[in-house]
Every structure is written in C-alpha cells, then in structure tokens.
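Chain particulars:
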Amino acid sequence: MDSFQKNVQINLRTTIDDGGAKEYSDQIQSGNYFRKQEMDVLMFEEKLDDDSVVKNLITIQESKVHINRSGSVKMNQKFETGRISENIYHHPHGKIHMETFTETIDYQKSTKSIEGRLAISYTVKLNGQDKRNHKIELSYKEEDHQ
C-alpha cells in the first residue's frame, strides 16, 4: 500500500535552553498519521490558552523535517541537518524573524506498527538576538480502537 491514514496519539516536548535556564513545553494530542511514498506526515490541532486553535502539519523525510502551523499562530519552519533556514513567526502580538540552524535530526520508526520518534536539536536567533538552544522530541503511536 502506497498511501494510508491512521489515528495516532502524539507526545510533543519542546525544550529551550537559554544560557542554562531551561523552559519546557509538553503536550499530548490526538492526530492523524499519513504515509505517502517516502514521506511521513503528522497532523494535529492544539488549543492555546486563549481558546484559539492552531493546526500543525509535520512532514518527515530523509534528513528533512517541515513544520507548518496555521491559525492564530503561523509558522513555516524547515529543518535540514547542517543548514540555516529563516522564517517569520506570526502571532497575535506581532511578527518575529527566526533564523534556525539545524544541528541534528534523529527519526526512528517501527517497521511492524504505526509508531515512531523524532528528535531535532537546533539553535534559534529571534530578531537577530543571541542564539538559544532548542530541542523538539516527538513520539507518535497508533491509537487503540475498541
């Protein structure tokens, strides 16, 4: 089968290390997993503190990850090992220029079931300020159907 879709549970942890002061963001979401040719796609919605909704689309390919967020927050972030990418982060209070350098991408998935782990280590400069270390750790697993 070349293309299919499954319901998955997504666990996402973002860590920001700003000179030793660490900030964590954890979320668990239900979403969808698609497999299309050589690309894995995860889609989920997150509800923000102000009750607005942000749609997340994550595409994972060999040594490349693309995160597209739309809604009250907009971002189109590309990660490619050893490369710098730039984008504009749009949020209700304005825009922030982001310069991202991707250090590592580690993606492992099961060949026997719908589950996987993605880890991305990268640095970010916001509006030209000093860079901060970031890490995304994402895991997904097919939801049980009863």
Q: What stands out?
A: Residues 1 and 36 are 9 Å apart (CA to CA).
